[in-house]
Write a structure and sequence with these properties.
- The chain contains 3 helices and 10 strands, in the order E-E-H-E-H-E-E-E-H-E-E-E-E.
- By secondary structure, it is α/β, with parallel strands linked by helices.
- It has one domain: 3-Layer(aba) Sandwich (Rossmann fold), CATH 3.40.50.
- A hairpin with a 2-residue loop joins strand 1 and strand 2.
- Bound molecules: inosinic acid (IMP) and magnesium ion.
Length: 178
């Protein structure tokens, strides 16, 4: 069993890269069927989605644009405390079809925050795409439009995903060793 050590933790191979590419092939095909005539803008959420966004876009053959956003932590004035602010939107999203690209949806809290903030830019439609999804951890009822791979509630690294900033460059996906 192939293992890697990142900082203090051992990880074991979980999803080989060929499996990930197959999932991305499928996503690109579905998105092409559904949005080829929509002139969408893809929005990758940094840092985690950089590899996924690159591989997906290589497979999209219709006219489209892409940009990247980042979530910055800041202390909200509301009693809810920590809210993450979406930064880096330089494009006019009004009346555009926006296809959000995330590396992973876990509880779903991050995606809910992203969608709430994007609505303020008055896009025509917000389409949610995630490479990985943890159904057992998901806490909201929000619809996810496209899912690459469902995974159990394990902590994973690789293909853009990190443990404390490291591991994003791994080509396969690894899970934390028990
Ligand atoms: P959520 O708000 O719980 O859905 O979490 C989403 C964010 O948590 C992702 O964008 C990742 O940055 C991070 N995350 C969740 N699960 C994992 C994991 O298994 N490995 C690495 N990062 C993760
Ligand atoms: Mg992320």
């Amino acid at each position: 069993m192939e293992t890697v050590k990142i900082l203090d933790k051992e990880f074991e191979i979980f999803i080989p890269e060929q499996k990930i590419y197959e999932a991305i092939d499928k996503l690109a095909e579905q998105i092409t069927n559904d949005y080829k005539d929509s002139d969408p803008i893809f929005l990758g959420i940094l840092n985690g989605s950089f590899l996924f966004a690159a591989e997906l876009l290589k497979r999209i053959k219709f006219p489209c644009t892409i940009s990247f956003l980042k979530l910055a932590s800041y202390q909200g004035t509301a009693s809810t405390g920590k809210v993450k602010r979406l930064i880096g939107i330089n494009e006019d999203l009004k009346d555009k079809t926006v296809i959000v690209l995330e590396d992973i949806i876990d509880t779903g809290i991050t995606m809910t925050q992203i969608k709430k903030q994007l609505v303020g830019y008055e896009p025509k439609k917000i389409v949610v795409t995630t490479l990985f999804f943890k159904p057992e951890a998901y806490q909201t009822n929000d619809h996810i439009d496209y899912i690459g791979v469902d995974i159990p509630n394990n902590f994973i690294v690789g293909f853009g995903l990190d443990y404390d900033g490291y591991g994003r460059n791994l080509t396969n996906v690894y899970k934390l060793k028990k």
